[in-house]
């Protein structure tokens, strides 16, 4: 009986890990449609500038160097 309980627990753990992996792959796929945060839902125009890791000064300086 103890062996069967251990098997059930391990199977539940494996199923949970597979479910998390499947959900992560689904979120990475194009089928997971998330609302576009940077566009107006009615006009589809950009609401502002997209965030980037560089500051505007560094970005402008980099444009001047090229």
Structural features, described:
This protein has one domain (2-65). It starts with a helix and ends with a helix. It is rod-shaped. The chain has two helices and no strands. The protein is an all-alpha fold and 66 residues long.
How many beta-strand runs?
Answer: 0
**Percentage of residues in helical conformation:** 55-70%
Summarize model confidence as the mean pLDDT.
Answer: 78
Strand content: under 5%
Number of helical elements: 2
Q: What kind of sheet is the major sheet?
A: none
Give the termini distance in whole angstroms: 72 Å
Radius of gyration equals 23 Å
**How would the global form be characterised?**
rod-shaped
Can you write the helix and strand succession as a string? HH
* Low-pLDDT residue intervals, each spanning 5 or more residues: none
Total of domains = 1
Indicate the structural class. mainly alpha
List the topology elements.
Elements: H1 2-28, H2 56-65
Outline:
The chain has 66 residues and is mainly α. The protein has helices at 2-28, 56-65.
Task: Write out key terms for the chains shown.
mainly alpha, rod-shaped, 66 residues
